[in-house]
Design goal:
Distance between the termini: 38 Å
Strand order of the largest sheet: 2-6-3-5-4-7-1-8
Structural class: mainly beta
Amino acid sequence: MLLTIHKSKIHRARITEANLNYVGSITIDEALMEAANFYEGEKVQIVNNNNGERIETYVIKGERGSGVLCLNGAAARKAEVGDVVIIISYALMTPEEAKNYSPVTVFPDENNSVN
């Protein structure tokens, strides 16, 4: 049996852009991705603290150090620039793996930087 377990998250980052005319996904600053153990193309859930929206999409690598957090395509309709979001990734694990796993949580500053 495999369980879906919280792998990592970025807690309370701010949306910097919303690009409706893009093919889809969320662009995340590469440094923020690395800190949160996110992979390009990985499925993530985005929870918008401002309006309660929850969406799923995949990660695209953004420019390192830019602080970019851009919802693309249809997802752009689910948030506004400045909205505070939580971005969560999950992993399939056996019960034994899950017992020993500690998720990664990143708390970026107001510019989506990690120190």
